Amino acid sequence: MENNHDLVKAEMNHLLQSSNQADSLRAIQAIGSKGEQALPILRETIKNSQDLSLKTIAVVVLGEIGEAAAVAVPDLIQELSRSNEELKMAASLSLVRIGKGSIPYLKEILLTDKHEEALFWASWALAMIDAHEISKETISILIQRRDHTNNPIEKLASEEALAKVIGKSIE
Fold first, then answer.
1. By the 8 A CB rule, do 23 and 54 touch?
2. What angle do CA 138, 139, 143 make, to 5 degrees?
3. Among 24, 103, 111, 124, which residue carries the largest CB count within 10 Å?
4. Model confidence over 95-106: pLDDT tens digits?
5. pLDDT at 166
6. Is residue 21 very low, low, confident or very high in pLDDT (cuts 50, 70, 90)?
7. Global confidence as pTM
8. Eight-class DSSP state of 71
9. Using CA atoms, how far apart are residues 134 and 37, in angstroms rounded to an integer?
10. Average pLDDT, whole number, for the chain?
């Protein structure tokens, strides 16, 4: 196990040092291919690293692992309330890739969190995982963001989530 820990750490360090996008993608895939064996170092990195790039890489790799990374959902949920926009988006996307195991945590954040951006990204992730799980309040969060943001990514994300909700209501 320690050997895998060292391999994952080495791949993450390689990612940070590489300016080559293809090398970075290969390193992410290599870490992700370790699956559940990579979870302890990825979770440790998210919880303890002060390096934003390293933390973001760990978040992205959890999404690449998918459903097997469900144990890390609480760590990703915490990142939705952080100040860095890139990290919030990466955490949201990883929650979507992990899938249905994220739903109870997303619903909880929608009931308890007061951070507007955390509520938005949790709403987006929930809509993308299963639009049937969306409440009227969650739809309101998405509409509010769509209508009042100057961020083009947030605008598109809210429109994407709302389209998913509309599509599910037609089924």
1. no
2. 120
3. 124
4. 999 999 999 999
5. 93
6. low
7. 0.84
8. G
9. 33
10. 87
Give, in words, the CATH class of 2-170: mainly alpha
Cα radius of gyration (the chain): 16
Q: How far apart are CA 150 and CA 171, in angstroms?
A: 32
The rounded distance, in Å, linking the Cα atoms of 69 and 95 is 9
φ, ψ dihedrals at 67, nearest 5°: -55, -35
Which among 74, 77, 31, 35 is positioned nearest to 54, based on CA atoms? Answer: 31
Residues 78, 2, 31, 39, CA torsion sign:
negative
Q: What is the three-class DSSP state of 135?
A: coil
**How many alpha carbons fall within 13 Å on the CB side of residue 14?**
17
Other beta carbons within 10 angstroms of residue 81's beta carbon come to 17
Whether 110 contacts 139, CB under 8 Å: no
Q: What is the DSSP letter of 82?
A: S
Query: For residue 38, what is the DSSP state?
Result: G
Q: Residue 40: exposed, middle, or buried by beta-carbon count in 10 A (0-12, 13-18, 19+)?
A: middle
Q: Per-domain residue ranges for the chain?
A: 2-170
Residue type, 165: V
